[in-house]
Amino acid sequence: MECHVYYEGDDDPKKCTARRLEQFDEAILYRRMEQVPYGIVLNPHAEQALSPADLEDGLGTLVALDCSWESAEAASFRMNGVHRALPFLVAANPVNYGRPFQLTTVEALAGALSILGEPERAAEILEPFRWGETFLTLNEEPLRRYRDCADSTDIVAVQDDYLADDGDDHDEGDERSDHSG
């Protein structure tokens, strides 16, 4: 599955995971929204959760937005495509380690790839990051459970079950990952 990123360029270039993905030929960056190809847009404001059923539409393209947390409002995600929100996942990046839904762009893409049945590709795009393997380890159980779901309804049920089981261990929030960083 191809990874594409709409890059706003408003965060620290040294910490930008999207730029590093581009450097390692793991994603294509676009600086103008109209250039971004149609695909599955990872959008924390979407009303439907990403699930393996999204592959039935024949979409082989994942699209993420790379921007700072301050500018990650709903209007930032006006890209054409099928908009889907990621379910509960915990960040492993040094800035937001252990925080639910506070994912970098590479973590969002890796989580999506894993949910869509491409865990090897998820590991591959995380390889250039020293904390990349930690993301997969921290989220191993929910990613496995999400991957086994049929559709977004099942994903939400698994997420709710996971949060109920681990609610004491995680800071539950109503936010979704904004793919920042």
TrEMBL record:
Segments forming domain RNase L inhibitor RLI-like possible metal-binding: 3-25
Pfam families registered for this protein in UniProt: Fer4_RLI (PF04068), Ribo_biogen_C (PF04034)
Region (Disordered): 162-181
GO cellular component term, pick one: cytoplasm
Annotated binding of S-adenosyl-L-methionine, by residue: 17, 65, 86, 105
Domain 16S/18S rRNA aminocarboxypropyltransferase Tsr3 C-terminal residue range list: 40-163
Keyword Cytoplasm: yes
A Gene Ontology molecular function term of the record: rRNA small subunit aminocarboxypropyltransferase activity
Main location: cytoplasm
EC number: 2.5.1.157
Keywords: Cytoplasm, Ribosome biogenesis, rRNA processing, S-adenosyl-L-methionine, Transferase
Biological process annotations from GO: enzyme-directed rRNA pseudouridine synthesis
Compositionally biased spans, kind Acidic residues: 162-175
Keyword Transmembrane tagged: no
Broad enzyme group: transferase
Its job: Aminocarboxypropyltransferase that catalyzes the aminocarboxypropyl transfer on pseudouridine corresponding to position 914 in M.jannaschii 16S rRNA. It constitutes the last step in biosynthesis of the hypermodified N1-methyl-N3-(3-amino-3-carboxypropyl) pseudouridine (m1acp3-Psi).
Protein name: 16S rRNA aminocarboxypropyltransferase
Organism for this UniProt entry: Natrialba swarupiae
Source taxonomy: Archaea, Methanobacteriati, Methanobacteriota, Stenosarchaea group, Halobacteria
